[in-house]
Structure formats: C-alpha cells, structure tokens
Amino acid sequence: MHPGVRQAVDGTFTLRTVPSAGARHALETYLPVNRVEDVPPGLYRYLALEHRLAEESRDPGIKRRVAAGCLNQPHILANAVTFLWTAVPDRMTWRYGERGYRYLHLDAGHVCQNLYLAASGVGCGVCAIAAFDDAAMNRLLGIDGERQFPIYAATVGKKP
Ligand SMILES: Cc1cc2nc3c(=O)[nH]c(=O)nc-3n(C[C@H](O)[C@H](O)[C@H](O)COP(=O)(O)O)c2cc1C
What we know:
- By secondary structure, the chain is an alpha+beta fold.
- The protein has five helices and eight strands; from the N terminus they run E-E-E-E-E-H-H-E-H-H-E-H-E.
- Helix 1 (about 60-70) packs antiparallel against helix 5 and helix 3 (about 90-95) crosses helix 4 (about 100-120).
- The model has no long low-confidence stretch (mean pLDDT about 95).
C-alpha cells in the first residue's frame, strides 16, 4: 500500500494519495484496532509524514466505546478496524475562511472513497459512517470538538 504522503513540497505542504483543497490536508486519522494481525487491539493514530502508527492506548474495550459512540452500530463490534477522521479546521480556514468548513467535508468524502478503493484491492469491504455522537467521539479521542472535531468514519473488514 502506498504511503499517504507522496511528496513534501518546500517543507510547507504535502501532496498525498488523496486530493485536498489547496493541499491543506486538515484531517487526522485515528484507528481503533479490533482484529488486525500484528497490531494489538487499541487506539492508534496515523502519522502521515512518517507513515506509521502511534499508539494512543491499548484499551481492549475500544471497539465497545467506538460502537457506543456510533449509536451502537453492530458492525463496529465485528470489524477489523474502524477509521475515525477528525478535522483541524484552522489548517483550512486560515486560508479559506468560513468556506473552509465546506472543503473539510469534501476532503473527508475523498479520503473515505479512497479507503473504499484501497480496501477492495486487498479483499476488504468498507462501510462509511456518519451517524455518531460528537460529544462521545470527542471524549473517546480526547479532542475539544472545536479546534478538532470528528467528521467521518468507516468500518473495514475482510470480505467472506
Ligand atoms: C455520508 C455517508 C454516511 C453514512 N453513514 C452510515 C452509517 O452511519 N451507518 C451505516 O451503516 N452506513 C452508513 N453509510 C453507508 C450507506 O448506508 C450505504 O452506502 C448505502 O446504504 C448504500 O449501500 P452500499 O454502499 O453497500 O451500496 C453512509 C454512507 C455515506 C455516504
């Protein structure tokens, strides 16, 4: 699988696998891991520039907390991993003002669609998720819901 960052330009912005308005890339990726070979269950964050995972916690109950935060959608308990995307609006709005909030949501759609494509290439299925409780997700991720807020999510699992 390709690393997320294809090129860092002048140390000021990055070109990635996914497009982003003005190459702002204002989204972060958190990964509550449930059943993934060689990765213990827990909460991880994807460090795009380093193309590696940072461990946030080894909470084996993470899938139940994520499922509860997503209105108890049962596929979250059964999947391999959930992708939780947050937005850091300052990275977009310093350049585009309020219109930046629109771009954050468009960017999130591109990111999730790319997950659908990448997953199908390795025999996995994806289900996008936008039904979640913002406050529960903020607590789970330790974010304030304003300077960083949950924007989109998706479950991933092997196809039978
Ligand atoms: C913006 C968006 C939000 C969605 N949120 C959820 C969700 O919270 N839970 C869920 O099970 N599916 C969710 N879905 C998946 C849709 O229900 C699904 O794509 C649709 O039923 C069509 O099924 P298909 O993708 O298998 O063709 C979402 C899809 C999109 C695009």
